[in-house]
């Protein structure tokens, strides 16, 4: 069985998006990857068996047609109290889960097989997973930018909840990839 991974890009001052969900240059490394970045991306895509995200992440992706060329050809589980009126464009398969994070993880495990479940969108969903002790490993792509305002990845609820073991650090010109295993 694979791991449950929190995989996010974060600014040096702790933000994963601007106040309205805007990127603010955080993900330039993904679309113009250096050699080390390409390997991180390839490994992540190859090892992902399911994705969990929040409704805000889904809506932002759908508004920007971000699922048209989605390299993650796996089921995406979206935590949401309701279904969107119009589905996102593209071939990505979405299951909307209204029964909470445990139900989403249970469903993701049923389709992921030996591959990893990636928590890939939303500070709120990430915080729920961390608070529940569901995350096995965190992969933070640390961008050398200061955003100053917006959506922070780590809410105080996650503070002091886990000890971390550094697994690896990969430095590239645009990003620093940090991997930590959570000690349970």
Automatic annotation (TrEMBL):
SUPFAM superfamilies: Dihydrofolate reductase-like (SSF53597). Residues 105-159 form the Bacterial bifunctional deaminase-reductase C-terminal domain. One of its GO terms (molecular function) is 5-amino-6-(5-phosphoribosylamino)uracil reductase activity. GO terms for biological process: riboflavin biosynthetic process. InterPro entries: DHFR-like_dom_sf (IPR024072), RibDG_C (IPR002734), Riboflavin_Biosynth_HTPR (IPR050765). Pfam families: RibD_C. This is Riboflavin biosynthesis protein RibD. It comes from Acrocarpospora pleiomorpha.
